[in-house]
Amino acid sequence: MLYKLRPEDIPSLNCYQDEMKRLFQGMGKPDFGIDFGTANTRIVTSGGGILFDEPSLCCFMGQADRGELVAAGSAVRSMLDRTSGAMMVARPLKRGVLSDIAAARDYLAYAVQSSVGQRRLRSFRAIIGVPADATNAERSALLTAANDAGLGSVQLLAEPLVAALGADLPIELPQGTMIVECGAGTTEAAILSLGGICATASLRGGGDALDGAISDHLHFRHKFLIGASTAEKAKRELVEMFHDGVDASVSIRIKGRNLANGLPGAISIPVSDLHPVVEKHVAGIAAMVLNLLSQIPPELSRDIHDGGIVLTGGSAEIGLVGRAIVDVTGLSVTVADNHAHCVARGLQRALAH
Ligand SMILES: Nc1ncnc2c1ncn2[C@@H]1O[C@H](COP(=O)(O)OP(=O)(O)OP(=O)(O)O)[C@@H](O)[C@H]1O
Ligand SMILES: [Mg+2]
Q1: Could you tell me if residue 106 is inside a domain?
Q2: Residue 15 has pLDDT above 60, yes or no
Q3: Which one, 83, 94, 155, 163, has the greatest CB density within 10 A?
Q4: What are the CA-CA distances from residue 184 to residues 192, 195, 315, 318, 342 (Å)?
């Protein structure tokens, strides 16, 4: 007997719309999507745009798991490294995954309530983006935090897929597309086709790791201590300065504590001194992309040769990332429009299905 294969019999032909329907079965249509990032959290609804966009930060009086939440989100940005007494700033996520369940619970409750008001959260259903390679323990910790925050039900979606959806890539076609989502805590590369992820690779490090590398360089090479916010500010300035190449005569002025005399001070560093730090960071990302490309079937290679690579996420702003990928792969690299909001926009699209 001739058995006629139907598209629905072939799992890889189930496009993402079917995947979304399957995910939401039994859950009901989700009310909003949460891009719970290491640096920033965004909450979207299908029709209402971005309802919430604030740093993923909490401030507790006392220990995070026992203390009282005194501030969260934007209000905490200026408190970083400046708290006094029993105050403590906590980040719910590190390297893209949950690291502090109590902070995540309180932060999610704050973020959702800021978006929907003081309504009963149990009636709300949400989808949350997670790194594609998050372990079961990491996923389950996030689900526990969301449940403890009071959310009714939650489904998790792989971030690179959602980012590709938000970047308007034709992921449902039988055609390979490649995305590199450059966040603060993770950098994830994925090759997508037929509504799913064909291959993925990631570094548990993103913009935050570069901030750390800049601080370490100043600490060990120049005996100068800076805080996390200053490191991020210096990185943004450097990225802008490197846009048109490295001008050895230009310096960057950074304020902090001079370890030689223990005094507050400022230091002027030639940008050419910090360029290798950024180069080393972007070389790691380019090597990860190269490694992923070397493992995919040739038809997908062909598609990516034609379509190139799309960068998304806040750290896609670092022009040297794109340039390093071009250098090692020879492929074309483009930065998606509104790259920092691709995951949020993708969640919005997923909600609309
Ligand atoms: N102009 C810029 N220059 C350099 N880096 C930037 C710039 N703007 C944002 N970034 C970096 O982008 C990162 C934040 O991006 P994004 O909001 O996508 O991260 P996230 O979603 O919170 O993190 P993740 O997805 O890894 O958990 C930060 O490291 C930030 O310093
Ligand atoms: Mg992100």
Answers
A1: yes
A2: no
A3: 163
A4: 22, 26, 7, 12, 14
